[in-house]
Amino acid sequence: MRLLRPSLACFAALLLGAQAPAPLKLPGAPSEGASLNTALRGRATARALVGPAPTLAEAGQLLWAAQGENRPGKRVAPSAHAKHPLELYLITSGSADLGPGLYHYLPPGHQLTRMADGTPATLLGAIKGMQAWIQEAPAVFVMAGDPSRIGDGALALHLTYYEGGAAAQGLLLQASALGLGAGTAAGVDLEAVARTLKLPKGTRVLTLLPVGHAKP
Fold first, then answer.
1. Residue 77: exposed, middle, or buried by beta-carbon count in 10 A (0-12, 13-18, 19+)?
2. Continuous segment of H or E residues that includes residue 36
3. Could you give the CA distance from residue 179 to residue 206 in angstroms, rounded to a whole number?
4. pLDDT digits (tens, 9 = 90+) for 171-182
């Protein structure tokens, strides 16, 4: 009996399938919590952040507040023509129930996929000129977007940044509601961040959102 030899492509497909991590299901966002007024009053930029990093439930709430679905196929943040150009990533130093690494948020299904090893210190700290408070943060949320999903030219780019701002504010308010410290990064080489994290071609980083516990 002649044995068939599997092709190299078959071996590669099996290998990729074995290496691809299963998506991590995030806990659903609670229906109750701090009022919007309380979150607004507590929102402030914190640049001295200490651990522990957000738990799985906290990370889920923060991601949902920025890009989660609050009704079938529709997200919390407004999107021009519902094109959804944003992509949200999390770099965490790890907590009791969420290991360190680089993660990608998947709004449909409210899931995380693990992309790579690393922490804010090891991934962002390697970038020239990276601000100390960012790389020392327990977690950094990376707001990115692909303007080509909306169209070409300046308008598509403008709308992507507009949507990113709305999503970032949702995350910052949720951090306030959870009693966490957070801030937005300015003066950072965002193109270097995209290269370091090996984001897909056409995806540009809009801002970094370090999160942790505000140091007393």
1. buried
2. helix 36-42
3. 25
4. 999 999 999 999
Cα–Cα distance, 28 to 60 (Å, whole number): 7
Using alpha carbons only, what angle is made at residue 38 by residues 35 and 40, rounded to the nearest 5 degrees? 110
| CA atoms within a 13 Å half-sphere pointing along the CA-CB vector of 210 | 29
Q: How many CB atoms are located within 10 Å of the residue 53 CB?
A: 26
Question: Is it true that domain 42-214 has CATH number 3.40.109.10?
Answer: yes
**pLDDT(2) > 60:** no
Does residue 74 sit in helix, strand or coil?
strand
| pTM score of the predicted model | 0.89
Tell me the pLDDT of the chain averaged across its residues.
90
Name the β-bridge partners of 207.
Answer: 143
Q: How far apart are CA 61 and CA 170, in angstroms?
A: 10
Query: Residues 176, 182, 23, 115: what is their CA dihedral angle, to the nearest 10 degrees?
Result: 180
